[in-house]
Amino acid sequence: MAKPLMAKATAVWLVDNTTLSFKQIADFCGLHELEIQGIADGDVAAGVKGFDPIANNQLTQDEIDAAEKDPLHKLTLKFNPAAVGEEKRRGPRYTPLSKRQDRPNAILWLVKFHPELADSQIAKLVGTTKPTIQTIRERTHWNIANMQPVDPVALGLCKQSELDAAVQKAASKKAKEGEAMSDDDRRRLLSTEQSLGGDTEPRIPTAIEGLETFSLGGDSEDEKEPEIDADSFFNLPADSDEDDEDEQP
């Protein structure tokens, strides 16, 4: 569904000038219902000036009147040629100033744990440039000694769904190219849902790799070893003591 221009400012105007329900405004503006309630309480969008959707050719007064009479009526956005293509993002992702210092750490994490991602994919995920990614790949970045790999999702630079989509795209590209992948590579190319939903794979500790045929536990009942007898072990004749006594003078 198409969203209005300046959605939050439009929501402020609708809250202040109509009796529409929070859900109706939220559905129309593409916001959460609790966010609309926060606007009504003054906790959200403080200082934001309302954007009149009627004056800006996004809604008609008849549409608002019909929605006010019927709480189940959904507002329909009026076609506005100026809004065509507004939702399409162009250029690098915008990163807030408070998080820009975390981008190198996020790039280092992506380069280390997802080397299959192309520079263009990393640039789109965290909003950086290809030269910056290249310096981190080659470890020639001016601050590389102080950088630590940190998950960009944990830093809030991208969504988990966006990262999963980029990884899946890289997986499809590798499959088409026919490039052989190791087990570790295959695990990296799984999405979060797939990796969490799969069965736990038992793995042999590296310290005993190659000893799979040997039993780590006690012997089974069917394969009990015969008890060792002292006489049979030393293979001593039963009457050896008597012979020794006869030979003594």
From TrEMBL:
Disordered, as annotated region: 169-249
One Pfam family recorded for the sequence: TrcR
Entry superkingdom: Bacteria
Basic and acidic residues compositional bias, start-end: 174-190
Bias type Acidic residues, positions: 219-230, 239-249
InterPro entries: TrcR
Protein name (record): Cytoplasmic protein
Annotated source species: Roseovarius pacificus
